[in-house]
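Changelog note: in this version the structure field was regenerated for every chain. One regenerated record is shown below for reference.
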Amino acid sequence: MRKFSIVLMAAVVCMISVSSIFSADIEYICGDLDGTNTIDIADLVYLTAYIFKYDTSPVAPADGDIDGLKGVNIGDLSYLVTYLFEEGEAPDCNAKEFELAVKDSVILESVNGQVNDTLIQIGTPVVFNIRLKNSDMKQNGIMNGFRIYSPDGATWDSTIADTNGTIGEKQFDLIFSNMQTNTDGIDSDTVALSGVRMFGPGMAKDFNEVVYAIKIGPFKSEDIGKTICIDSSYIGPAGDWLWTNANGVQKPSWDGPHCFTISATKSEK
C-alpha cells in the first residue's frame, strides 16, 4: 500500500529523463537532488523515491541530507516539505552527528495465538499487534520496521502485515507505505510501517492506538520447541527507525525484542 499525492505522481513521469542529461561536473545545490539547479517538487519526488525503495535514485544523494543532521531519511523528506510548502528554513547540507532522543513508544500490544507469556501454539495463525503511543508533539513522519525470525530454524508459510485503519493516508498524505520484503517464512521476514505528511495532520500528539498487525504462520508440529522472535529493524536504503517532527528526528522506544517458544499446547483464552 503506497501512495503519492496526485501532483507528485505527475512529476514522476519526467524525473528519470531529467537526471540523464546532467554532467557529473555540475556543482549541486543542497536540496537539488535532480541536478536542475533549483529546489522544487521534482526534488521532493526524487527523495521520496529514494527513501521508499522506488527504482530511481537521486542524482546527488548527499544533497538529500538537508536537515542538518547526519543521515538521509524521512527527517530530510519532512524538512523539504516544510521548506517548499510551509516557508520553512532553507536546506542545510552541513550534516552534524546527533544523538537520537529515545521518546514515545512502539509497543507489542498483544499476540493472537499466544498460549501464555512465553508460548505460542501450532496450527493457528499468529498475529503480532503493534501499538503506537505519541506523548510528544505532532509527528510529521514515521518509519518503523520489524523483523520476524527464528534463531533455531522454525519456518512458516508467509508474513502479511497491514494497518487497521486507525492511521494511514489521511494522516500521511505525501506517502504512506506498508513495505514488505522476503516474506516467505524462511530465515527472516521484514515489514515496515511508514509515512510522511505534506498537507495532512500527521500523527497527533497523544495518539495512542493499536495500528498495525503482522500475521505469520501457522506453525506445524515439526516446529514444536523452536523459537520465533519479533524485533525492530531497518528496511530500505534509508529506512532508519525514527519519527520526525518540528524539532527534528527522534527515535521512539521499542519494548522488544520479543521471543516465544512454539508449543502444542492450545490457548485457553
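Spot check on this record: The first helix runs from residue 6 to 19. The chain has two domains: 6-96, 102-263.
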